[in-house]
């Protein structure tokens, strides 16, 4: 188990016993994946700090928008668009319609451009 996994195990154990707090949230915000999990399972609602931390990685920006925000936002979309795969997923499952930014990003890769045309544009 890595030091990050051990730290996060402690953070979630502490949060489970005492509830979310600034110190444990700050630790979680050090890694995009854990910022997402903290927002989803500890805070149970969106916050600017966890969103900003999760939005340092396209995958976790997408998951944050889909599962925590439950709506599209320009900041999470912009990060998701840094990767064609996550731009496609963002358009399909968060925007639920074509968007110029996601289309342009998805079209950087032939596979995701095809999927976008087939599953997003057709709506």
Keywords:
mainly alpha
Can you describe this structure?
With 123 residues, the protein is mainly alpha-helical. It has 2 domains: 1-54, no CATH class; 72-123, no CATH class. It contains 9 helices and no strands. α7 (84-95) runs parallel beside α9 (110-119). It is elongated and about 50 Å long. The mean pLDDT is 90.
Task: Present the secondary structure layout.
Elements: H1 3-18, H2 22-28, H3 32-43, H4 48-54, H5 58-69, H6 74-80, H7 84-95, H8 100-106, H9 110-119
Short account of what is shown:
The chain is mostly helical and 123 residues long. 73% of the residues lie in helices and 0% in strands. The N and C termini lie far apart (44 Å).
Kindly give the count of domains: 2
What is the number of helices? 9
| Biggest sheet character | none
Beta-strand fraction estimate: under 5%
Number of strands: 0
- Poorly predicted parts: none
């Amino acid at each position: 188990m890595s030091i990050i996994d051990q730290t996060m195990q402690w953070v979630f154990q502490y949060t489970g016993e005492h509830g979310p707090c600034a110190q444990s949230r700050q630790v979680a915000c050090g890694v995009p994946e854990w910022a997402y999990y903290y927002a989803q399972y500890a805070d149970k609602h969106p916050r600017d700090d966890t969103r900003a931390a999760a939005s340092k990685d396209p995958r976790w920006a997408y998951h944050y928008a889909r599962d925590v925000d439950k709506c599209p936002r320009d900041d999470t979309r912009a990060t998701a668009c840094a990767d064609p795969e996550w731009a496609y997923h963002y358009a399909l499952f968060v925007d639920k319609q074509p968007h110029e930014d996601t289309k342009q990003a998805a079209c950087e890769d032939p596979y995701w451009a095809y999927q976008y045309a087939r599953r997003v544009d057709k709506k």
